[in-house]
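Q&A log
Question type: sequence-to-structure
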Amino acid sequence: MAYLIDARGKTLAASNWRQPHSFIGHNYAFRPYFRNALERGLGRFYGVGVTTGEAGYFLAAPVREKDAALGVIVVKVGLDSLEQALAGAGETLLLADGDGIVFLSSSRKLRYRTLAPLAEAVSARLADTQQYGGQPITALTDRAFSLDSDQPQHLSLPGEAPREWLIHTRPVGTQGWQVVQFGNPGEARAAALGGAIAVAFAAAFLLGLAAHFRHRARRREELRRVYGELESRIAERTADLTEQIAALESTKAILRETRDAAVQAGKLATLGQMSAGISHELNQPLAALQTFADNASALLARGRHGEVAENLQMISELVERTGRIVRQLKIFARKEAPTPQPVSVANAIEHALMIVEPRRRETAARIAVAPVARDLRLIAEAGRLEQVLVNLLRNGLDAMAGQTDALLEVGTRHDGERVAIEVRDHGSGLAEEVRHHLFEPFYTTKPAGEGLGLGLAISLTIVESYGGTLSAHNAPEGGAVFVLTLPAAGDPDAPSDT
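Response status: OK
Response body:
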């Protein structure tokens, strides 16, 4: 929704003017976004609407004529899609503001809870700005807890019995927001136990085979004389191996579940890094809003309120564009079942480019994509293929950070039964030592706090699960080239996951 406020805070025009809870006639001078827009040139604020009772993110810019402020133009963006993405992530995730108040959560019953007791000055400010309307602000847990501890903490969340939680936090954006994750320490222990069982069974199986073959070599002549006894022993050994194979199959299932959990964790980590870029991505609509605000200024001065509504319609279209970005983030965060199927290469590249667009703008780089046939498809899962492409594109942009006229190139090849996607940067290339450890978990060349070194390791796991390959080399002219190959979809007319 978009609306126009005069210099005293009274709303003159709004996109919801036909609705029962229209903003027209209401005074919002007490809202921080109104004061910040007039004083600083930009207002940003998350809160519950005092007119509609609906929460949203408010973006405000001043309307000026020469040096005089005539009013403020405001856009309210709902973040329901982002909250649905948190709910679909499979974990207990919270988004808290700078005062430690949870305003978005994977569970609605955790909204409007505090991570720590509020100071009297903060409570007074919330009452003055009506940031959360009449919502009661209560404690999140039954006791105080630490956000910095790496040890499990025994807590009780609303509506749940007391249990142990692993608590992780990550800062988001420039307004003091933070993402808080409540994890299950039992799942972490189960994953570690599953890995140990897999190693133990594999070692036992290999040692058993080695002993069997050594035994056969030493006693070949003797076994020929006692052939009847050998048949009995083989039958017993076969039964033993059958039990071990059954155990290995169970271990493989555990490993698959662990792999899927790691892939989803990689998505959430990427989403956490991209959350800070959401505000940057909204700056472009804000720049356009300034242009339309200047138009509105001239029209208001002439009393042509009808044409102001046309400007507001254009602003609504910019809001729709912002909605498309939020929907793509929701699709990216979705937890998918392992069901490989034909996936459109062109659509996967387009969606990945949309997700890395904030980082591209930060580095001022160009991304050149060679033409891709619309019917070119490969066998994968759309969300996980986009996750791999996002990792490769972000790494390429990071490798060229600080360069002038940086260029990242994306190309595709269809070689019979395989489809190859190449991502080439024009950075300094890969050092020989780095190339040998490139796909190892927790190996990273980035500064502390900018990466865990899991992106390429998880990407390799995803690609190999579909029978594909992921490799890297240096281009002769300089820069690094990452090559992703996957099986091509056999029937070009088959429906694809877009």
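Response note: The chain has four domains: 2-78+282-328, 80-183, 187-261, 336-487.
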